[in-house]
Amino acid sequence: MSGRAARALVTAVILVAVCAGIGIYIGLYLINVPGSVAATSTATGTQLYLATVPAAELTDPHPDWVSYYVVNSSSTDWRHDTTFQVPANTLVHFTIYQYDTATGLRNPYFSQTAGTDGSVLYNGKPAAVVNPAAPAHTFAIPQIGLSVPLPGANANAKNLCANAPCPLSDAHVTVSFTFRTPAKGLYRWQCFVPCAAGFIQGNGGPMQTVGYMGGFLKVV
Amino acid sequence: MDDKPHFRNIALLWLLASVIVTPIIVFVVGPGLPPGTGTVEAAGQVTDNTVLLALATPVALGVLVYMLYAMWAFRERTPEVIVDGPPIRGNASIQFWWLAVTTTMVLFLAGYGTVRLLADGSGGGQGPNPISVPKPPAGTRVLPVQVIAQQWQFTYRFPTYGGVETRTLDLPEHTLIQFNVTSLDVIHSFWAYQLGVKADANPGVNNVAYVTTKGPLNFEVRCAELCGVWHGYMFNSGTVVSRAQFASWITQQRVQYAPATGNLGPYSKTYFPQPLRRGG
């Protein structure tokens, strides 16, 4: 084989290898979907327990980021996933243990609950609207018109939770609501409080990262 | 150099192609052009696009015909004998007509575009002081609708209906809508495709765009300015309905969202909401 032919062959092999490497990298990235947690079926219906915290676990890649977690009814068994799997066309009960303190809504429109089946309960008491300065976060699925403000824990409490995981003995607000899930599909949810500390407009960082203040409702 | 009448041949071929293709563009392709004819402005955009295409077609055909003719007529017939072509010469007549025709076309388009923009604004945002304000249909008044863009959902506020804010958008038919588009955070863009309206939503700025609705219509609203990772999910839909249906809908919205309306600040063309960012 002549020198020129050999050089051409080596170049072609390297080119193919680089292209294959890029293709594999992109492919792995695309198929690497976040984990999901399924709502559990109970005697009282399909139930999902969540928690919102002022900062993630100390071992988290972003320990100072606000975040949602999936928990159980006793606020133990914390799982850092924000894709929730629920059955289609079903009444699903959500309970959110809200451990963060208030930031307030940028748009007071989101101070009213919307899209739920029945009232939203705040520490057991029904309310259709909250003070717009009170929410620490919201849980909203814009595509189906669901929006629930989550009032902040008492900022003067002595037992505020600093980092996840947080026990029920830490200051928190319990928010419960029910809504009917739509047809099968993937629906995005987000928080409408600009709660990302240190980011411009409060909507960077955790607000734009799946696994923290945004995720998906996987309706199956 | 041969003495064939190449210029005449090209001209005739071009004329034939233009006479065949241009009417197809105008009468067959034109009516189907986006964004449709659901509103006065959208229909105007279809007309404008058809006019532009009708003017561009003979120009494109001229280039195409010339290129294909040259590839055929001036191909090398004796490749074994390479000869130089005839020397290039200037032609004052061609130069004059080339400049005259292209200048005329450009000036016409500039004038046409200006007239069309002044007629109704063509559905584009005109900033806080629009110079093109269409007349509302006889017997109706302008309906102002504020479009509030925020990461990552559009909401709509109706100042003449108690300042109620809604997450869906219903509009009455045969009505001049004045969209007042603004943002609470970063730059977005309000793009209601079938309405033929597209206006940037800038924080602290009121961007006014006009649309005159016609009959019932379903339309999509999308954000057309990259605004973060969820930009692609910033969409919703709306409908143009009868005036009676709109009256019923807005009344229902006012009742349903009365608590939230009580928390909203006074209606304003722009907002500078706090908090700008979470402390920390």
Q: What descriptors fit this protein?
A:
heterodimer, A: alpha+beta, Immunoglobulin-like, seven-stranded mixed sheet, four-stranded mixed sheet, 1 helix, B: 280 residues, alpha+beta, five-stranded mixed sheet, 5 helices, 10 strands, 38% helix, elongated
Mean pLDDT level of chain B: 92
Shape of chain B: elongated
Calculate Rg of chain A over CA atoms. Answer: 22 Å
Task: Give the low-confidence spans of chain B.
Answer: none
The CATH superfamily name of the largest domain in chain A is Cupredoxins -  blue copper proteins
Distance between the termini of chain A: 60 Å
Helix/sheet category of chain B? alpha+beta
Q: How many helix segments of chain B?
A: 5
Label the overall shape of chain A. elongated
Determine and state the CATH class of one domain in chain B. Mainly Beta
Our Rg estimate of chain B from Cα atoms comes to 27 Å
Number of helices of chain A: 1
Cα(first) to Cα(last) distance of chain B is 82 Å
As for the CATH topology of the largest domain in chain A, it is: Immunoglobulin-like
Structure in a nutshell:
The complex is a heterodimer of chains A (220) and B (280). Chain A is an alpha+beta fold.
Write the layout of secondary structure elements.
The complex is a heterodimer of chains A (220) and B (280).
Chain A (H helix, E strand, L loop, with lengths): L2 H29 L5 E2 L1 E3 L2 E9 L13 E5 L11 E4 L4 E8 L21 E3 L2 E3 L7 E7 L4 E6 L21 E8 L4 E6 L23 E6 L1
Parallel strand pairs in A: 1-5, 3-6, 5-13
Antiparallel strand pairs in A: 2-3, 3-4, 6-11, 7-8, 7-11, 9-10, 12-13
Chain B lengths: L5 H24 L10 H34 L18 H29 L22 E8 L2 E6 L5 E3 L2 E4 L3 E8 L4 E5 L4 E5 L5 E6 L4 E7 L11 E7 L1 H14 L1 H6 L17
Parallel strand pairs in B: 1-5, 4-10
Antiparallel strand pairs in B: 1-2, 2-3, 5-8, 6-7, 6-9, 9-10
